[in-house]
Specification:
Elements: H1 2-28, H2 45-50, H3 52-55, H4 74-82, H5 92-119, H6 129-150, H7 157-169, H8 182-201, H9 204-207, H10 212-236, H11 253-276, H12 287-295, H13 307-352
Helix pairs in contact: 6-11, 6-13, 7-8, 8-11, 10-11, 10-13, 12-13
Length: 363
């Protein structure tokens, strides 16, 4: 019991001593927390402990605690706070750029889908009059070049087929003429390459024979064939106009290459024109066109437009104009230059197909 009272008395004495020390520091103007990170030299905790008896009401008790005062460095706290990482700010610009890129990607995909839809759309045959008339023009244009040089039609294969039949018949006429004439060789070359070009036209069935893509691509291939023919005849260094059937202007190997490329271009054009299925038919063989025109029941109905009649007349007129233009150019600039112009015309037709209106769905 006595021990507990003594402990309580010592504790109260220490609290009183602490109060007296803080009061004495205030009266002397000494701050408890020094400024500027350094404490006053007058403040010495150990000296206070040595003079503790002067401030103690209880002379028998001692109070020595060097950890009573803690020196706080405010500059160190400022430096510590300065070393903290900066606050993380949410960047809205990156999000907006992400959304913008996403919108751009969607716009690109939409543009590609629209372009694909445009290219794979089927053209309206009734509004394909202009490029088909240009096809007929090229038939007369190309044939004027070959017929003027070697008297062979690279588009009208009826005559070439009959010519080969006549060449075969000569073997049985009793004169024993087994020679393969140059004109017959050129006719055979034209027939075979025409069939090859028509076979290429069957590839259009994979893309759609009436789609803008195939019509433009197929016409572009025709232009490539025409350009190859122009280069071949230019490198052959031969003439452009034959004096007679017995003396053709083209006789060497490169001239055969020229005939082959021109015939292949006409074969491709023929099957493409036929696939469009209009009054222009193949745009190559006009014998049938003449017959259908003469058989048209509205041939003399001149007071109104008749598509079945008028388109056939346009096909025949375009072919005639092409033959006239081809021969006129041939006399001025030769075979190579004329075929070069034909290449340019076919490139224009190729681009023309991309702007032909789409066929409307039937309601």
């Amino acid at each position: 019991m006595f021990t507990h009272r003594s402990s309580l008395k010592n504790g109260l004495g220490r609290i009183g001593q602490l109060h007296q020390r803080t009061t004495s520091f205030k009266s002397q103007g000494i701050p408890l927390i020094p400024y500027g990170g350094s404490h006053s030299p007058d403040l010495d905790p150990f000296s206070v402990c040595e003079n503790e008896s002067e401030l103690d009401d209880n002379p028998g008790g001692t109070f020595v605690d060097p950890n009573t005062f803690q020196v706080i460095d405010m500059n160190a706290q400022d430096q510590a706070s300065a070393t903290l990482p900066p606050p993380v700010l949410q960047r809205t610009s990156s999000q907006s750029s992400t959304h913008k890129d996403r919108r751009d990607g969607e716009g690109d995909s939409t543009t590609i889908s629209r372009l694909k839809k445009h290219l794979f759309a089927e053209v309206d045959g009734e509004q394909s009059t202009a490029p088909l008339s240009a096809y007929c023009f090229m038939t007369g244009f190309i044939d004027s070049v070959t017929f003027s040089a070697i008297f062979v039609w690279c588009a009208f294969q009826t005559g070439n087929t009959v010519q080969l039949a006549l060449a075969l018949a000569r073997l049985f006429n009793g004169q024993h003429d087994h020679s393969f004439h140059i004109a017959d060789q050129q006719a055979l070359c034209s027939v075979l390459t025409f069939i090859f070009g028509a076979f290429i036209g069957r590839l259009g069935d994979k893309l759609g024979c009436k789609t803008r893509l195939w019509l433009a691509l197929g016409t572009f291939i025709q232009a490539i064939f025409t350009m190859a023919a122009a280069i071949s005849i230019w490198q052959s260094h031969q003439g452009s106009v034959a004096d007679s059937r017995a003396n053709p202007a083209w006789t060497n190997t490169l001239s055969f290459v020229c005939v082959g490329f021109m015939s292949a271009s006409m074969g491709l054009q023929g099957i493409m024109g036929k696939r469009v299925n209009t009054q222009f038919t193949t745009t190559v063989v006009l014998t049938t066109t003449w017959c259908e025109l003469m058989a048209d029941p509205k041939l003399f109905d001149i007071r109104r437009m008749v598509i079945s009649r008028d388109h056939k007349i346009m096909a025949i007129g375009s072919l005639f104009l092409g033959g006239f233009a081809g021969r006129a150019l041939l006399d001025k600039i030769g075979s190579a230059g004329t075929l070069g112009i034909g290449t340019g015309i076919r490139l224009i037709i190729s681009a023309w197909w991309l702007f032909v209106p789409e066929k409307k769905a039937k309601k």
